[in-house]
Amino acid sequence: MPGNSCAMWPAIEAGASTKEEVHRSVSNAENTAAEVRDVIIVGSGPAGYTAAVYTARANLKPLLLAGSVTAGGELMNTTDVENYPGFPDGIMGPDLMENFEKQAARFGTEIQFEDVTELDLDGDVKTVTIGTGETFKARSIILSTGSAYRELGLPNEKRLSGHGVSWCATCDGFFFKDQDIAVIGGGDSAMEEALFLTKFAKSVTVVHRRDTLRASKIMADRALAHEKISFVWNTGVEDVLGQDKVTGLRLKNLLDGAETELAVTGVFVAIGNDPRTDLVKGKLELTAEGTIAVDGRTSKTSVQGVFAAGDVIDPTYRQAITASGSGCVAALDVEHYLADFHA
Ligand code: NAP
Questions:
Q1: 47, 57, 104, 274, 307 from 299: Cα distances, Å
Q2: Calpha distance 65→136 (Å, rounded)
Q3: Dihedrals φ, ψ of 26, to 5°?
Q4: Hey, which of 3, 41, 264, 322 would disulfide with 142, CB 3.0 to 4.6 Å?
Q5: Helix axes 46-57, 320-342, angle to 10 degrees
Q6: 222 lines ligand 1 (CB under 6 A)
Q7: For residue 188, which atom of ligand 1 is closest to its CA?
Q8: How many C-beta atoms surround the C-beta of residue 256 within 10 A?
Q9: Ligand 1 pocket check for 211: Cβ under 6 Å
């Protein structure tokens, strides 16, 4: 999986500023790896940071394991966020995440930019292992690991990843100045990518497998009206062409089976996301959609003391604001759980 980081070099550069801070931690200097904490939050999108604000304000001294290159989650790869309430003029995704981080830190969240590699969720005290091998223990865990970009599943897509195939227009779009680019998908992400790419590209061709867009009307209308964007409907991608870098796509009309080639030097895949559940497969119950199963409207997973929030539990809404709300729910559930635990 390409993950939530960008697909090409800027991805790594974008992560690098975060990576430099990998060992930065914020406040709670009295905590040590050996102690049993009240709560550890895994993942640092809107859900994780909101859970951090709430649990920190409840004096639970949360440790937030934010991830390294994926820190901040999907909004780090977004430009204007126009639909997060409280920002009437919109806000850039990375700026919004910086605000989240500052707010969580302000109330004493300890933030470490580390990747979790293993979770032991058995028993009353859970163990979290990070990439360095260090372990942390806690009475409760909030999983807010978000989702990762979906791939088309073509062998040449992987081979040419970083050589013309990308999952992140904001990271890689700059490299395609005055070039012909394709965007695959028909949802809000695809429209967002296509619109952003018009800043650089000579042309953007959206390839969609149906004849209607899944995207919201406002995004669809903007893309449909844009002079640089054209659409190829009812069409699947059969192959990504090119030896060392992308030279085109082989397309198949899904109505009549006709195959054509589209000459492009860049391909942006925007066909949705899959919940990031690798850490908990076989440990927590998952839904048919692959998200972590929770009990009704709560954040309670199938294992006591383990809570989940954000895109990793949500196959439907998947908005920054719904993830934030879900992070709040998880924090309140943890508060109640710990009150019983300590009683
Ligand atoms: P999405 O809504 O699930 O759309 C995925 C698109 O990719 C669909 O058009 C789908 O086709 C197509 N697709 C899926 N698998 C495919 C495959 N194997 N081959 C070809 N095409 C494939 O995902 P999304 O666009 O990433 O959006 C996810 C959520 O985030 C949504 O709730 C969306 O509203 C939200 N979002 C919002 C904004 C915004 O408000 N600005 C921006 C980005 C995302 P079908 O239509 O045929 O299923």
A1: 11, 19, 20, 19, 5
A2: 10
A3: -115, 120
A4: 41
A5: 40
A6: no
A7: 25
A8: 7
A9: no
Q: Could you give the CA distance from residue 339 to residue 208 in angstroms, rounded to a whole number?
A: 51
CA dihedral 131, 134, 139, 145 (to 10 degrees): -10
Burial of 65 (0-12, 13-18, 19+ CB in 10 A): buried
Q: Name the token pair of 58.
A: 């409840």
Asked if the model's pLDDT at residue 10 lies above 50, the reply is no
Instruction: Tokens 């090409």: give the residue.
Output: 8
Whole-number Å distance, alpha carbon 66 to ligand 1 midpoint, is 25
**CA 134/CA 115 separation, integer angstroms:** 11
In the numeric block, the tokens 């895109």 are attached to 311
CA distances from 300 to 146, 244, 296 (A): 16, 48, 8
Nearest CA owner, ligand 1 atom 16: 271
Cβ(279)–Cβ(288) under 8 Å? no
For residue 198, give the DSSP letter: T
The dihedral sign for the CA sequence 151, 152, 155, 160: negative
CB 271 near ligand 1, within 6 Å: yes
Which has the closest alpha carbon to 5: 94, 102, 84?
Answer: 94
Q: What is the pTM of this model?
A: 0.79
Question: For 266-314, how does the pLDDT look when each residue is reduced to its tens digit (9 = 90+)?
Answer: 999 999 999 999 999 999 999 999 999 999 999 999 999 999 999 999 9
Distances (CA, A) of 248 to 228, 231, 237: 18, 16, 11
Q: Is 318 helix (H, G, I), strand (E, B) or coil?
A: coil
Q: What contacts 29, CB < 8 A, 6 or more positions away?
A: none
Residue labelled with tokens 């042309």: 203
Q: Which two tokens stand for residue 44?
A: 């640092």
Active site residues: 168, 171-172
